[in-house]
Amino acid sequence: MRGRRRLVTFAQVRCPAAIYGKYGNDALVYLLLIQQPPIMRIRSFNRVPHRGFTLVEVVVAMAMVGIGIATVVTALTTLNSTASINRNYTGALSAGTFQIDKLLSDAPFKPTTQDTNGNYIIPPVLTVGTTTANNIPVYQDPATGTVVSGTRTTQVTALPAVNFIGSSITIYQATVTINYNYRNRAYSYSMSTLRTPDQ
User: Fold this and answer.
1) Tens of pLDDT along 53-109?
2) Beta 167-169 vs 129-140: how paired, if at all?
3) What is the Cα–Cα distance from 127 to 107, expressed in whole angstroms?
4) Sign of CA dihedral 64, 68, 69, 73
5) Are 39 and 2 a contacting pair, CB within 8 Å?
6) What 3-state DSSP class applies to 132?
7) SS3 of residue 136 by DSSP
8) Taking every pair of C-alpha atoms in the chain, what is the biggest distance, in angstroms?
9) What CA–CA distances, in Å, run from 173 to 23, 156, 192?
């Protein structure tokens, strides 16, 4: 918005004697210049009225935040549960592997040879049949000290003899199964091995 210019003529200018005596005819030009009002420029801004959030917007935002938090908590809980199951599985694998190692290493094993008492030389762990051991530790939580225990079942079977280079070889098959419960669910892990007589 511009201010209006006021037109000043020579007839309308009243030159004071002091100014006229000092500047002479140039005083009229001086007075004409100082009589002109400055051009005023006023900027107008389009002001946007401030407003808050509506109730619907707040409710929708809170719902989205709640869904996000619930998703994160569910994912973390699932990951923790999966990690616990895997730790127990590793413990059951270790317990089964320990028994398998014992079945393969316990000696002497000569099922076709008798000792002085007429008994076949077979370690007790390789006795044909099924044996069960309870309270086998599967995993112990280092933070809480909670122990997950299970049952170990060992089944030993004598397979039919196999002829190998003119010799008859007796082979025993052993299957070790670890059963345990965790969070009201039953888990089972099995592994098998074969044992041939010692030379």
Assistant:
1) 889 999 999 999 999 999 999 999 899 888 888 999 999 999 999 999 999 999 899
2) unpaired
3) 13
4) positive
5) yes
6) strand
7) strand
8) 155
9) 131, 6, 7
pTM for the whole structure: 0.63
How many Cβ atoms are within 10 Å of 24's Cβ, its own excluded?
10
> Distance between CA atoms of 35 and 133, rounded to whole angstroms?
116
Decide: 122 and 109 in contact? Cβ < 8 Å: yes
Q: By 3-state DSSP, what share of the chain in percent is helix, strand and coil, each rounded to 5?
A: 35, 30, 35
SS3 193: strand
The two tokens of residue 88 are 């127990």
Q: Which two tokens stand for residue 6?
A: 């006021």
| Residue that is written with structure tokens 């140039």 in the block | 26
Residue 150 to residue 96: CA distance in whole angstroms: 11
As a residue count, the chain comes to 199
Q: Give the span between the Cα atoms of 156 and 109, in whole angstroms.
A: 14
Cα 136 from chain centroid (whole Å): 31
The answer to whether residues 132 and 147 touch, using CB atoms and an 8 Å cutoff, is no
Helix-then-strand count for the chain, H and E: 3, 8
